[in-house]
Design a protein that fits this description.
Creatine Amidinohydrolase, Chain A, domain 1; alpha+beta; 3 domains; six-stranded mixed beta sheet
Length: 599
Amino acid sequence: MEENKIPARLAALREQMSKHNISAMIIPTDDAHMSEYVAKHWKCREWISGFTGSAGKVVVALNWSGLWSDSRYFIQAPEQLEGSTMRFYKEMLSETPSIEEEIAKNLKPGDRVAIDGALFSVNAAKNYRNYFSKHGIELVNDFRPFDIIWANRPSIPTDPAFVFPEEFSGESADSKCRRIIEEIGKHEANATVISTLDDIAWTLNIRGTDVECNPVVTSYLYVSEDQRVLFVDPEKITSEVSEYLTQNNIIVSPYTNVLSFLNNINKDTTILIDPVRVNSLIDSAVNNEVTKVHCPSPVPLMKSLKNSTEVEGFRKAMIKDGVALVKFYRWLEDSIDKGIVTELSIADKLTELREAQEGCIGNSFNTICGYKAHAAMCHYCANEDSNLTVANDGILLIDSGAQYFDGTTDITRTTALGTPTEEEKRCFTLVLKGHIGLSKAVFPEGTRGDQIDILARKAMWENGLNYLHGTGHGTGHCLNVHEGPQSIRTQHNPVTIQPGMVNTIEPGLYLTDKFGIRHENQIVVIEDPSLCGEFGKFYKFEPLTLCHFDKNGLDISLLSKEEIDWLNDYHKMVYDKLESRLDEQEKEWLKEKTKPIIQ
């Protein structure tokens, strides 16, 4: 993004605001489907600010502007906003005012704040309206200036969808639709509208290429006791997909018909709308005579509980990914002294080696490769201007993943190149202690992620250290790399950790202008039969990721016997599961990397 274009874009937006008597506008990262990552058509926040991060909101007022984003972007955001006059507000810090507070402080009663209601959930729009009304400020929810000011705005994607075979999904679309009806019936509803793209892809067993790295199809889905309607651009439906949808009793209607359809549904319908996952324009379009039930959709939890086919698919995907990673780290060692390894070439090499694996359809997110100080930016993304050459010293953090038909991978490994300093080894080891501490967790049925998050932070907290991001997120099955509704983080989340959930464990530590460290594996939650009895069921984590941890970065004296045993057992598993897929040189290399630590 050329920074010199931002002032002109802000001026164009303010001109439209003045024409419509708007004093401030809130611009989110989201699309009309509440997606984490969005197609280019909906990257309004990036276009107006120049900030390329995956999270944040911009406020543009007539005489000031600001970006709010979280700790992942505390370093990146100010750099990208330089020259734009836009102020950066660090979310999650007690001294940082909320968007609502800052707007209310700078506006007066009678002023108007605008949003594009298609880009805000039902709850978000409602909360803004309630807050601003207390200050005499009106919320306008149908302001859409980007249709006018964004010249050559990318269109909504029209790439074809494709069928995701049941041999990978483990359950038919018809079965999933029937289960959804059964679940919403518990809330006395007989219909629902599904807006989130990964929920639709999972429900119908279809995939697409509409969002980079997220194999989803831009659409809405209406499911009732007697009707299933997919609202999607007809250009996206091939003859194969059309035949498949017909077999599953799914009607196809143009994407733009969804509002009029909802306005005309039978008045006897009781429709369940998830106020967090459905946008406010969809909600307001529903026929006024229809009964609406605002409560969480059952689909995210259903999707998070992977069936046996999906879990076995993840295991297969991890073997493929593990083989690619062995080849990658051997290449890294062989090439680093040649002066040809850079942050960007690392990302390219990982993509090349993964795409050589059977069933790989691309990356699951853009590779995060940070060397030395860049690794302190936990979601740093290299470009031609920032791209560093990697030498045989310092800390290298690589967070990457791939989409396979078998499953979605997400792994972070930190490598201590050359001879690490005592500080680097201490920090490296404390983070690994946190990773091991949570990986070894055993917990009773009904446990939430926020109740076990401390296990990943304990060693760091005891040394006055911390990280501000979550410890773990759910992962989709050949779907979005970030998936709920479960999470492991300090913030309360009522969703319990249940068998079948595939999650990450990824504690980290970031020292500004020095280095960053993160150790990440994916795990699946399983029952521990040996502990189930009088006190109910107990669960534990089975590691899925297959890649060695760099022992060069360890201070062994900081590890307990139990932690060393876990690491040795994990490394043995990595070797045992990968060795049959490797050539002799690769086997010898991996055997050395996974050699047991003797204490």
